[in-house]
């Protein structure tokens, strides 16, 4: 079969910190008043995207990757490497750290390097990014003393900001943020601090202090982001990040652009606006929340409309 652009659905996950924006702004099927995460492009078994168009409608993205490794030619071991999410943070998320590839490989997972584009931020919104301990011993001492106030680095954020969060970085999204996340396809998280919160039953969520202390990079390294903006006919392209795990751009489209598929694959998620995606199979309407996977060696395609689209590839 010839490769074609796959339209995929979002898999919504309720979280105690989730809100209603994934329902009200993006209208995701199965979103609720407390959806924290929409996994907009995923081949991870904990929340796999399903193709909704063409001959493979009804198959999961992971199944298509398995059937056609040639459509995704960078892939090793049939594992789709990226996971794209939208997150609606009505409350603070717990403070976490993820292992790197080497550490995670011992239990068959990838490490988790991620990055965040801030789609929306309420005034005063913050994230936790990094820590102030100079050594692992100091990190351990502060964690064991519960001194998170001086340990954690807080950073004010606003709409349009972008943050790179390599594995080993202590991090948390704060309340009042709507975030587009690009990450390695992994679900391994160590929870370091949960603000001593208790749920309705009076229980605290599980913490993973020892694993967190082991994988946290000490001292913290600051990961700089230097967006590169290119103006082209019909589009302003902002490249936020190009690292060994992913490249992430935002395309602001006004009019019509023409694109070639690349040698790996291209992932597109519409944040704002309306328009159309056009290729040899026809026309797909684009709305906020529409996500497409463009395999390698697809025919040329065009995008038309007034749109803001997040784009990722490896
Ligand atoms: Zn994370």
What does this structure look like?
With 314 residues, the chain is mainly beta. It folds into 2 domains: 6-215, Jelly Rolls (Sandwich), CATH 2.60.120; 228-313, Jelly Rolls. It has helices at 21-24, 61-67, 101-105, 136-145, 148-151, 209-215; strands at 6-8, 11-19, 35-41, 82-89, 95-97, 114-121, 126-131, 152-156, 162-165, 171-173, 177-184, 190-193, 228-232, 235-242, 247-259, 265-279, 282-286, 291-295, 301-313. Strands 1, 13, 14, 15, 16, 17, 18 and 19 form an 8-stranded antiparallel sheet that branches. The longest helix has 10 residues, at 136-145. It is globular. It starts with 5 loop residues before the first strand and ends with a strand. Bound molecules: zinc ion. The site of zinc ion has 4 residues, from loops.
Mean pLDDT: 94
Low-confidence stretches: none
Question: Strand fraction band?
Answer: 35-45%
State the helicity in percent bands: 10-25%
**Molecular shape:** globular
Tally of domains: 2
**End-to-end C-alpha gap:** 23 Å
Look at the structure and name the CATH superfamily of the largest domain: Jelly Rolls
Q: Looking at CATH, which topology of the largest domain would you report?
A: Jelly Rolls
What is the number of strand segments?
19
- In DSSP terms (H or I, runs of 4 or more residues), the helix count works out at 6
SSE string: EEHEHEEHEEHHEEEEEHEEEEEEE
Please state the CA-atom Rg, rounded to the nearest Å: 20 Å
Q: Tell me the structural class.
A: mainly beta
Largest beta sheet, briefly? 8 strands, antiparallel
User: What are the bound molecules?
Assistant: zinc ion
CATH class of the largest domain equals Mainly Beta
CATH architecture of the largest domain: Sandwich
């Amino acid at each position: 079969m010839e490769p074609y652009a796959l339209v995929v659905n979002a898999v919504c996950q309720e979280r105690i910190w989730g809100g209603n924006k994934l329902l009200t702004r993006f209208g995701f099927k199965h979103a609720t008043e407390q959806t924290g995460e929409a996994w907009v492009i995923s081949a991870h078994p904990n929340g796999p995207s399903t193709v909704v168009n063409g001959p493979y409608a009804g198959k999961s993205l992971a199944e298509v990757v398995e059937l056609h490794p040639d459509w995704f030619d960078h892939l090793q071991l049939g594992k789709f490497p990226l996971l794209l999410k939208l997150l609606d943070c009505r409350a603070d998320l717990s403070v976490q750290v993820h292992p790197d590839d080497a550490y995670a490989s011992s239990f068959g997972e990838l490490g988790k390097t991620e990055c965040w584009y801030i789609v929306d931020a309420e005034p005063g919104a913050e994230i936790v990014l990094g820590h102030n301990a100079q050594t692992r011993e100091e990190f351990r001492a502060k964690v064991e003393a519960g001194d998170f106030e001086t340990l954690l680095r807080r950073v004010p954020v606003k709409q349009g900001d972008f943050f790179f969060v390599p594995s080993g970085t202590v991090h948390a999204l704060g309340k009042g943020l709507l975030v587009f996340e690009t990450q390695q396809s992994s679900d391994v998280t160590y929870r370091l601090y949960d603000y001593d919160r208790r749920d309705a039953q009076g229980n605290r969520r599980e913490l993973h202090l020892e694993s967190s202390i082991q994988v946290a990079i000490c001292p913290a390294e600051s990961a700089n982001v230097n967006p590169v903006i290119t103006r082209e006919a019909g589009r302003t392209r902002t490249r936020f990040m190009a690292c060994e795990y992913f490249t992430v751009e935002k395309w602001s489209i006004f009019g019509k652009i023409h694109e070639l598929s690349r040698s790996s694959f291209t992932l597109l998620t519409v944040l704002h606006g309306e328009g159309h995606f056009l290729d040899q199979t026809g026309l797909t309407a684009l709305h906020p929340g529409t996500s497409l996977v463009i395999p390698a060696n697809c025919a040329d395609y065009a995008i038309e409309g007034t749109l803001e689209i997040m784009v990722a590839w490896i």
